[in-house]
Amino acid sequence: MDGLSELDARLVGCRACPRLVDWREEVARTRRAAFADQEYWGRPVPGFGPHDAALLIVGLAPAAHGANRTGRMFTGDRSGEVLYRALYDVGLASRPTAESADDGLVLYGTRITSPVHCAPPANKPTPRERDTCRPWLEDELRLLAPGLRAVVVLGAFGWQAALPAFAAAGWTVPRPRPAFGHGARVTLAGGPAGRPLDLFGCFHVSQRNTFTGRLTPEMLRDVLRGAAATAGLHPDGPAAQAPPGTGS
Fold it and tell me: What pLDDT is stored for residue 191 in this prediction?
């Protein structure tokens, strides 16, 4: 296995946060009525996408009946419906829907991860849980560094959680730390591969944001297009083809 495969294999066995372990496993046992006939994943959810990705998307944490059920980032919930539709629209995904881990979805040059890998109660990890999980993101960033060019961070929580991870992985985070905002863009100097990294802020694809119009599909597509272009990816919509070596 390569480094990211080894990291993911270790990650799914993590039991470092008792509250999160109890919650993710309780949800997997009791299940939602709509998914009563399905076996839940009920473990930490690893990143999804190619190991040579030029673009990384950082979320918050798995949803209890989404990724905690399916075992794949943003798969099986409303937030994922919005995100993968936008990725497909700008040519970064092979299909517009994400239903299960074996649905054939492929990401092009793009990987998705989160600063907390277990589903938290009420979608709210504690600061201690965030900090305990951070080394996984730090290691993932180091392994992605040779090809990584840009990162889209979804939401203020992800932004605040990710900045220390970028610093620990070797990039220089400006001081004072840049504030989160939709459309924010910051260049981080240095990095493990000696290459700067462009960081983009985007409102989270939560139901609250998308239902109220705080984040529209057009707003999301605009951020993704800008980050993709910065990463050296040049998608042209749903017909885009995966460059060699960039399948999931």
Answer: 87
Whether 28 contacts 41, CB under 8 Å:
yes
The verdict on pTM exceeding 0.90 is: yes
Write the DSSP assignment of 189-238 as a string of letters: EE-TTS--EEEEEE----HHHHHHTSS-HHHHHHHHHHHHHHTT----ST
Of 19, 28, 27, 93, nearest in space to 55 by CA: 93
For residue 157, the model assigns a pLDDT of 95
Pairwise CA distance, residues 13 & 193, whole Å: 29
Count of Cβ atoms closer than 10 Å to residue 237 Cβ: 9
Q: Tell me the pLDDT tens digit for each residue of 151-187.
A: 999 999 999 999 999 999 999 999 999 999 999 999 9
Strands (E), the chain: 55-58, 110-113, 150-154, 171-172, 185-190, 197-202
Give the whole-angstrom CA distance, residue 16 versus residue 133.
Answer: 8
Residues facing residue 93 across a β-bridge: 107
For β-strands 197-202 and 185-190, DSSP reports them as: antiparallel
Among 175, 183, 177, CA closest to 154: 183
